Amino acid sequence: MLLDTPSLYFRAFYGIPESMTAPDGMPVNAVRGLIDMIATLVKAHRPTHLVAAMDADWRPAFRVAAIPSYKAHRVASGDEEEIPDTLAPQVPVIEQVLAAVGIASFGVEGYEADDVIGTLTVTSSQPVEIVTGDRDLFQLVDDEKRRRVLYTVRGIRNLQTVDEAWVTAKYGIPGRAYADFATLRGDPSDGLPGVAGIGEKTAASLITRFGSLDALLAAVGDEGFPAGARNKLEAARDYLAVAPAVVRVAHDVPIPSGSFEVPAKPHDAEALIALADRYGLDSPLNRLLAVLGKS
């Protein structure tokens, strides 16, 4: 099981009141919410291995170099991500809690959590479940290799299972074609413009007809190719030359060595007790540890 941790702690932050505080008054709603999410997931799915992927770089240079607008609207100052003032101090606490529990958690310099997840997914010899609220990771579903997304759009207790059939039913495209489809359509939430004049329905129709973005672009000059689409694609040649490398998650991130097995007991019980006392986390941590002990 691979956790898109930033997606989950943002969801926890906005879903749980900030009145949930530590003894010193610091909001810990994201921390508590994430701990309870992990407990719920482990109890329901019983993974043998678990990784909480983090953003070491939320706006990687290679993506910005290709498309400068990538996530530009989320920049607060310099190159820092705009993040609520009461969430920012909770992220280091989340990292400390995961380390003390013994759940593998890391980011890789120059890459997003999505890229860590992409690499772990394609290199795994086991079935993979990806927990996320980010549609970008739909590109990793693969029925043959038993890779699927558990989508949090309806909540952590009512996850939408996303496989190839679901992608096809939802978007009208081949089940493994989400990245090509998203490249054409664009994504304003990530600052990706897409091809001007080609919306979701047209993008789906073109990808379904030609099978992939590469095949579509190879066929643009063919007789009988839709003239309207040809003009739009030709006008977007520069964008289409670089966008796939931005939209597709990396498959070659250097993953640190270590055990990704679900821990049966805390890695550092003393540190965990200190964190529980300082931030008032006894109840959620006891729930998590009880579930892990039964894994």
Automatic annotation (TrEMBL):
Xref: InterPro entries: 5-3_exonucl_a-hlix_arch_N, 5-3_exonuclease, 5-3_exonuclease_C_sf, DNA_polI_H3TH, FEN, HhH2, PIN-like_dom_sf
Protein origin, superkingdom: Bacteria
GO biological process, alphabetically ordered: DNA replication, Okazaki fragment processing
Function: 5'-3' exonuclease acting preferentially on double-stranded DNA.
Ranges of residues in domain 5'-3' exonuclease: 1-263
Record-linked Pfam families: 5_3_exonuc (PF01367), 5_3_exonuc_N (PF02739)
Name the UniProt record assigns to this protein: 5'-3' exonuclease
CDD domains: H3TH_53EXO, PIN_53EXO
Keyword terms, alphabetized: DNA-binding, Exonuclease, Hydrolase, Nuclease
Any one Gene Ontology molecular-function term assigned to this protein's record: 5'-flap endonuclease activity
